[in-house]
Design goal:
alpha+beta; 2 domains; disordered N terminus
């Protein structure tokens, strides 16, 4: 959404910083716009503090090195240093929300972590000196905001609400609404029944989660210019029937847990989905058990299939499973990753 080359610098202090959080996931939800129809959360600290990460330090260190190299290649590292921000120490999570009834580019981002407002502002102003894009400091709802206008792109507003929370939005009204909620008792009142329902299929302890209404997913896919939103809805319909929304999540413990949530039109439909899915998993187990007699890869697949649990609660169908870290490493080793 940001085209900034040099502004990636000005935004670096804030956008890289767009990776911060406390453990409470209720905080970002409280700040999101009421017309939100897609919520995506990435929690870095959940990954770094997991048993899987602690027992696979070499893998984690390799990933950290690749991320650091990426920041260095973009020239962002010196600005992060100036802002006294360490990605792996100070960043916890980022939550991105996309509205339903307006331009999806009017997304709203909540970043939680440990922030030094004065140093971040100094670093951002320093980065802006060499940027082609417009950058200035303004106030919205009595909160200091960075107004950034990337060349040939829309203006965005970044605000440090407190030492643990940063928001980024393309809409001043959304900024003001969040600023009013940060210290008050008022929470977001999501207009979408589907969003409210799907929130029950994800939780704050997950490393990554995403949920969205079917209507918005179709709109986003059509917006890519591929015109494949209808094909997407048809594929989902073929698998589950008519659905109102979807969710997916991954969390790390000793192993990798994953889940898929499907929001049906009612509880009866969700039960039908659950029954059909159970039959499909049962058939897959039988077929994979045969292959596993002679194929090591099939044994891995069978272990994953055996972990799958299917549950219908109200209009939601939830499919959960688990991949051991050893099996995940085996899968990754067989992926065609370029040097």
């Amino acid at each position: 959404m940001f085209r900034a080359r040099h502004l990636g610098l000005a935004v670096a202090c804030t956008l890289s910083i767009l990776l911060g959080s406390s453990a409470a996931q209720a905080q970002p939800l409280k700040l999101l716009p009421n017309d939100t129809e897609l919520i995506m959360t990435f929690n870095l600290q959940q990954i770094l503090k997991s048993e899987a990460a602690k027992s696979n330090k070499l893998v984690v260190d390799f990933v950290k090195a690749q991320i650091k190299q990426g920041f260095e290649n973009q020239g962002m590292d010196k600005y992060l240093d100036k802002a006294n921000f360490d990605l792996f120490r100070d960043f916890t999570s980022v939550t991105v929300a996309v509205p339903g009834g307006r331009d999806p580019k009017e997304s709203f981002t909540v970043i939680e972590g440990k922030f030094d407002a004065e140093k971040i502002e100094a670093a951002a102003l320093d980065a802006a000196k060499n940027a082609e894009e417009k950058f200035k400091v303004i106030e919205i709802a009595d909160i200091k905001a960075f107004e950034l206008t990337p060349k040939e792109d829309r203006t965005v507003y970044i605000g440090i609400l407190n030492s643990k929370t940063i928001i980024v939005t393309a809409n001043k009204a959304d900024f003001a609404e969040a600023a009013g909620r940060i210290n008050g008792g008022k929470d977001a009142k999501f207009k979408s029944d589907v969003v409210r329902s799907l929130l029950k299929t994800v939780n704050p302890k997950q490393a990554f989660s995403v949920l969205a209404t079917g209507t918005l997913l179709t709109k986003l896919m059509d917006a890519t210019g591929q015109g494949n939103g209808g094909a997407f809805r048809q594929a989902v319909s073929d698998a589950f029937g008519d659905v109102e929304g979807l969710s997916a999540a991954i969390s790390l413990t000793k192993d990798v847990d994953f889940s898929l949530g499907v929001n049906a039109k009612d509880a009866e439909t969700a039960k039908k989905f659950a029954n059909a899915s159970s039959v499909g998993v049962g058939l897959a187990k039988t077929q994979m058990a045969q292959k596993a007699k002679d194929d090591e890869k099939a044994k891995t697949a069978l272990e994953i299939i055996n972990s799958i649990k299917i549950n219908a609660q109200g209009p939601n169908l939830t499919i959960r499973g688990q991949i051991s870290f050893e099996n995940l490493q085996m899968i990754l080793e067989n992926l065609p990753i370029p040097n």
